[in-house]
Write a structure and sequence with these properties.
Keywords: Glycosyltransferase, Transferase
Protein name: Galactofuranosyl transferase GlfT2
Pfam families: GlfT2_domain3, Glft2_N, Glyco_tranf_2_3
Helix content: 25-40%
Number of strands: 26
Structural class: alpha+beta
Family: Belongs to the glycosyltransferase 2 family.
Number of domains: 3
GO molecular function, one term: glycosyltransferase activity
Oligomer: single chain
Number of helices: 17
Amino acid sequence: MKNNGDDDVREMLQRILLPRKGEPHDVRMLYLIEAEQNKERLTWGDRVTVTVPAGAEASFQTYFNAFPASYWRRWSQLEHVLLRMNVAGTASIEVYRSKIDGARVAVAGNLITDDVAEFTIPLSHFEDGGWVWFDVTAETDATITEAGWFADRAPGPQIMPDGTEVGPFEKRATVGIPTFNRPHDAVAALRALGEDPLVDAAIDAVVMPDQGNRHPADEPGYDEAVAHFGDRFHEFRQGNLGGSGGYSRIMYEALGDGPAGAAQSPYILYMDDDIAIEPDSVLRALQVARYAKSPMLVGGQMLNLQERSHLHSMGEVVGRRDFMWTSAPHVHYDHDFSRHPLSDRGAYGDDPDAPNSRDLHRRIDVDYNGWWMCMIPRVVAEKIGQPLPLFIKWDDAEYGLRAGVHGFPTATWPGIAIWHMAWSDKDDAIDWQAYFHLRNRLIVAALYHDGSVDGIIRSMQKATIKHLLCLEYSTVAIQNEAMKDFLAGPGQLFDILETSLPRIAAIRKNYSDAVVLPSATDLPAPSGAPGVPTRDIGGRLAKVKKAAWLLKGLKHSLGKEDPRHHETPQANLSPIEARWFSLSRLDGATVTTAGNNGVAYRRRDRELAEKLLKESRALQKEITGRFDELRGTYRAAQPELVSRESWRRIFG
C-alpha cells in the first residue's frame, strides 16, 4: 500500500520477541508456547531470531507477542495491521484472531519457503475485544527473523480536544526515573534502557531525580551506565518530595529550557526505579502514542516481579460511589499466564468462577494508569500542567482524571509492561502510607467527585471499624491526621510536602502495632487463642457467618482487655491470618509484616480505641458538612498547585 505517493512504508509497531536465555518455563509462556508433542525444542540465539525444528509447532498467542487488536481499533488511526516475517526453510504460518470471549477464528495462512511472509489483517472485527496472533508448524528446520506487527503508513496528524491538529510526532521520548534509596535498582533500570539499540536510539534524555541519601552514583556499575547515555543523562538531587515531587521534577525539566529539555521530546515516559522492564515496551508505547487518533496517555501494565508470569491487573478505574480505585469491570487480579494462557477459555461445565482467560480478550477501558510506567505526550503536559503536590498515592490517578477532563484519554495497553513488586507484599494500607492514601483520596475527590459524599464517608467509617477491630490503632491515628490536613485546605500542600512523612512517622512511634520487632521469638510463646478463625470466611453462607463473628468481635471489643496478653501474646499470626474476625477476639497477638521480615505486637486497648473512634467520627462529620465548600476551595486552587511557577519555587 502506498503512503500518499511515497515509497512503501513498513513501520514496526510491535516486535515478536523471544524470552531471555535461562528464563524458566512459566516466564517463557509470556512469549511463546511450544506444542507438547514436539520432539525437539525451539532454539534462539538472540531475542528476535527463532529456529523451529522440522515437525515442531509453536504458538505466539501470548501476552508479549499477540497483537491487542481491539485497542488499536479503538484508539489508533489504523484500519488494518500487517504481520510480517522472514522465513528460511519451509513452515506453515497460520494467522488467527479471537472474539470477545476468546473464541478462535482463522484469518489467513500460507506455506512459506525461503520467503517473506506478509499478511494484512483488518481491524474491523475488534470493536469490543480480540487479539491477533500466529502459529508456526515447521515442515523443515525453519528460522524466523524480523517478525513483527507493522503499519503500512506513517502516523498522521492528531486531533486535539479543541479540534486543532498537532503532529505527527517523531519516535522520541525523555525517560524519567525518580529514585529514593534504591541505588542498585536505579542502576539496573539504566542498564535495561541502554541494552537494546532500537530503544536506546529513541531516548532523547534520561532524567533521574535522586531524593535519598543512598545515591545511585555510589553504586557499582553507575559510571558505566551513565557513560552509555553521555550528555543525555541528567541527575537532579533534591529533598524527599515523594513520587509526585520526583515525577514533577522530570516533567519540569523535560518541558524546560535546561539541558534535560533541550531535545524537546514529543513524549515523556515515567518509570519507577524498582522495576524490571521489557525494553521493547518503550518502543511499543511510543508507537501507540504516535498512531493515536488524538493525544493520549499510554500506560504499561504491571507484572509481578516475584511471580513473573502473573499479571496484576488489566486496568483500573475510580469508583464513582465511594471514590476508591479499583479494578475495571471484567478485570481479574493476579492472572497467571503459565496456568491460563490466552487460549484458556475454561472447560465446559466448569465452575463459573473457575480461573480462565476469556475476559483477557475484552478491551478494558480505564480512568488512569500507575506511574510505574506511563507515557505522557508533551502537548498534554503543556496543556494540563504538572503533577499535584501529593507526595505519594493518588498523584497518578489525579493526573489521569485531569487529563480525561481535558479530553485526553488514558489506555492501559496489553503487551506494554514492567515487572514490579506485588501490592500484596506491602503493608501500605496500614503503615505510614495510610495517611497519604486517605488524605490524597479526599483531595482528589474534592477535585473530581460531583456526587454525594455519603458513599465516601460510609467507606471511611467501615474502614475505621475494621482497623480498630484489627488492633491497628496507629493506622486510625494517622488517618485522623489525614482528615485534619484535608480540612485545612489546599494552601498548605506545598508547605507540608517534605514534612508530612517525618510528622506521621513520629506519630506512629507511639503505637505498638507500628513497631516492627525482629521476630515473634523475641517474645514469650503464645498462650493460645480462644478458637478464632484464621482462614477467610467464605462459601454460600459467608455473610451470615461474618455477621455472627462480627457480633462476637464487637462484644469482646467492648469489654475490658486482659493486661496479661500485653506481655504474652495469645497467637502469632501470619498476614493472611490477621483478619478482623480473628483479631477482634484477641487482646494481644503478633502479626508478621507483609514483607515477612518481622512482626508487630498488636495489643487491644479499649480506652484508646474509643478515643480514636470518637475523633474519627467527629472528623468524618465535619467533612460531610464542609465537603461542598472544600470542593470549591480545592478546585479554585488547582491551577496554582499544578503550575510550573509553583514547582519552580520548590525546586529552587
